[in-house]
Amino acid sequence: MIIEVLSILISLGLLMFFAYRGYPVIVFAPIFTLLAVVLSGISLLPSYTETFMTNAANYVKSFFPIFLLGAIFGKVMELSGAASSIAHTIVKALGSNRAILAVVLACSILTYGGVSLFVVAFAVYPFAAAIFREANIPKRLIPGTIALGAFTYTMDALPGTPQIQNIIPTTYFGTDAYAAPVLGTIGAIMVFVGGMLWLDRRRKQAAAAGEGYGEGHTNEPELIKNETYMNIWVAILPLALVLVGNYLFSRGIWTVETWYDPAILKESFKIEKVKNVVSSWSLIISLCLGIIAAILINVKQVKNKLASGLTAAAMGALLAIFNTASEVGFGNVVKTLPGFKLIQGWIMGASDHPLVSEALAVNVLAGVTGSASGGMSIALEVMSKQYLEMANAAGISPELLHRIASMSSGGMDTLPHNGAVITLLAITGLTHRQSYKDIFAITVLKTAVVFILAFAVSII
User: Fold this and answer.
1) Domain that holds residue 438
2) pLDDT of the chain, 460 residues: tens digit per residue
3) Is residue 334 included in any domain, yes or no?
4) 386 lies in some domain
5) Which of 33, 41, 300, 369 shows the greatest Cβ crowding within 10 Å of its Cβ?
6) Any stretches that span the bilayer, and where are they (predicted)?
7) Is 287 among the domain residues?
8) Residues in Cβ contact with 238 at an 8 Å cutoff, skipping those fewer than 6 apart
9) How many domains does the chain have?
């Protein structure tokens, strides 16, 4: 059994190492998956074609519309100038003396409004570089700052966030995107405050050492001069439509749950419970409304670049979902290996409380796959029924299971092989060696907050 567990750890370690060195996850995830299979003495080709590829394809089938529409929404927000206007307004209002806070808030608003995490990094980076340069804050702190604003509380903690990490649990627990709003809000505040304290401490350390923005950086954005920005209230309209629409269509007066006859859905489309698809349907509709609004607020500027923009968005969505799907395939093969049963038994035996056990399971698998959505999908696919039974026996609401699972997915997922981390560093022209320490600190903070909340609820 030790060798079988080591086969998993060796494969994971190699995947993280190669990702750290800049190699594509979409290529090396299947390679190291098959290495784990060989070391475990399992059939090689069936594991690849029937387990790895089948689960990767199922993930694409379930979530590609959200990835694609999210990427398109972010791109048209960028093309229309709305994303730039929002970032510029926040930076201008707070000033260079609050550069870190300005960047975190800009990322938070865009992410909570439904803009893809990858697009947020592209949209905010030019302003982050400009204001960090003006405040003479080391450029190496930009990735950690963007990660705090885009990869943490607005991704999975705040109620109603339209990011995929908040939608996946609805399929398993019959909840919606607004599950456990109080717990999620408390967690978001804890992560925000803790993250800001860490980043400000790092800024002060750099200042005391006489370190400034630095010279000779790569991927430096062009200086923005005399650019005209649209009215901020117009710019946030598409974001508001996504948020309000998502609420109305998921649990409001226009909920899509009542649009179709459940009997027809069950008979013709094999949908056993309408609640399990309501969140995805409502988000698809809301993102479509947001895309239309983002185009209409500045048709003149968007129309000339729409074709190339849609192509870029589609390519970005394909890369993002196939990276994640490859990691999901990796995780699903791992769960069939003999060594995983030992790991699963350890996870389930670590705590009798479903929230604590769930937080541990999702964090471990998000770390293994390097994907928040991928790791959570695997954990819930394998163990959600057990957690529901445990929660029902203990009188715990499925909404709490939803929120803890969602927040846990954004914990240890951001290890070096995480696609979002790799993309963020590429955008900013920095390396793991320069900036990963701060991203990892945010990762540890986020993970700690989830366990604090899970333990707190377990003793109440």
Assistant:
1) 1-214+226-459
2) 678 888 888 988 898 788 777 677 788 889 999 999 999 988 899 999 999 999 889 888 888 888 788 888 878 887 888 877 887 788 778 876 788 998 999 889 888 887 767 667 777 887 788 788 878 999 999 999 999 999 999 999 999 888 889 989 988 998 988 999 999 999 999 999 999 999 999 999 999 999 999 888 887 765 545 467 889 999 889 988 988 888 888 777 788 888 988 888 888 888 877 776 777 888 889 889 999 999 999 998 898 889 998 998 888 788 778 877 887 788 788 888 888 878 777 877 777 889 999 999 899 888 877 778 878 988 898 888 989 999 999 899 999 999 999 999 988 888 887 777 877 887 788 888 899 999 999 999 999 999 999 999 877 6
3) yes
4) yes
5) 369
6) 5-20, 26-45, 99-128, 178-199, 229-249, 278-299, 306-325, 360-380, 439-459
7) yes
8) 73, 77, 82, 113, 290, 291, 293, 294, 297
9) 1
Pull the structure tokens for residue 349: 């035996």
Residue of 46, 42, 111 lying closest to 83 (CA atoms): 111
Structural contact between residues 25 and 370, judged by C-beta atoms closer than 8 angstroms: yes
Q: Taking the model in full, what pTM does it have?
A: 0.76
In a domain, 220, yes or no: no
Give residues with Cβ within 8 angstroms of 82, minimum separation 6: 230, 234, 235, 236, 238, 294, 297, 298
